Amino acid sequence: MEQQLYELPEEWITKPIGEIASLVTKGSTPTSYGHKFQSSGINFVKIENITDGKIDADSISSFITEEAHQFLKRSQLQEGDLLFSIAGSIGTSALVDAAILPANTNQALALIRGYESDAIPEFLLYALRSEVLNETKNKKRGGALQNISLTDIKNTKIPLPPLNEQERIVAKLDALFTRIDAAITYLQETLKLSKALFASALDREFAALDVRFQIGDIAYVKGGKRLPKGATFQDDSTAHPYIRVADFRDDGTIELSGLKYISDETYKYIKNYTISIKDLYISIAGTIGKTGVVPEELDGANLTENAAKIVFKKQGNIDVRFVYYFTLSNDFLEQAGLATKIVAQPKLALTRLSKIEVPLPALREQRRIVSSLDLLSEHTRALEAETKERLDQLAALKSSLLDAAFRGQL
């Protein structure tokens, strides 16, 4: 905001946050002073507890004792405080309301308090969520965990209209955002319903089949291979693409744009660990349980050690996409121990995969089911793509409204 690229209305001024607020500080981490987190007690607010300008009390999972709360006075929150993340996900902001008090916060969040007579807190919250802070956010520094300083926050200038104009802008933004948020909620529910309907169709198709075989009876389950010590990936294309879990797409195939490659020399050491278009892959470490079939252009590519391949013994009797669709069902997920969101196992054992029972009707019936699920999958993906596009448009609309508000054009 140092260089004003547009004219503000005549009655507006700009003022640094450090002159608007009487206190700009940051929280403290209890463990730095010998205090431990508890399973209950005083709320301890982190960045992940902030959503769309609000603190989600139900998401708070860290708590401290009354003793720690009193000791960490600097990080005690008050009603009307503004929180602004200065490390990690820089820019996440929220207004503290009485419902979550008493509460503390950590050093990743700046605490802005006391607005004198220049601003109302709701107006400042919208300012923190707007492009007004872009220049400040661009000052981030550090390595893996980037951050900005409290001085950066204090020096950030905010456009300030008269108080009655601030109240008008806040009321208008509140009304508009309420309508936009209602549309966002509806679209998000549409996404959930679409996925639920597809999952229901999967379960219905496979529940009707009673002839089952263990995977180990109909296929070989083999792991991939890591690069030999000292070998590295190449971005430039070679004759030997190397498929990683990061390349596994959500629609059961491989993302080609970010592929890595290996040299002829490296390939000599891991040439036995390739995957065919007739095989099924499944991630067994990291993001566990992502499955799919490699496209034709990757037939014979090397496969990461964090995935396994299922090589069918009698390929003429099995449609690989039929088994792929089964891996998306709740039946498969439960047998693999992946039905819950929190998966304790660090790795999916090949022996466990081998023992999973797969319903296997005649090939003609497999193909009928695949054809039906292909159509439903295509429709579901199209609906999801359209819905996500609309969600992006609504997010852009919010940004546009905030930009207009702080240009004095709302």
Question: How would you describe this protein?
Answer:
By secondary structure, the protein is an alpha+beta fold. Helices cover 36% and strands 17% of the residues. The protein contains 12 helices and 21 strands. It has helices at residues 17-20, 66-71, 121-128, 134-137, 150-155, 163-207, 215-218, 264-270, 320-327, 330-336, 350-355, 363-405; strands at 13-16, 23-26, 42-45, 50-51, 54-55, 63-64, 82-85, 93-95, 103-105, 109-113, 157-160, 212-214, 219-223, 241-243, 260-261, 274-275, 280-283, 291-292, 301-303, 307-312, 357-359. It has a 4-stranded antiparallel beta sheet. Strand 17 and strand 18 (291-292) form a beta hairpin. Helix 6 (163-207) runs antiparallel to helix 12 (363-405). It starts with 12 loop residues before the first strand and ends in a 5-residue tail after the last helix. The relative contact order is 0.11. The mean pLDDT is 90.
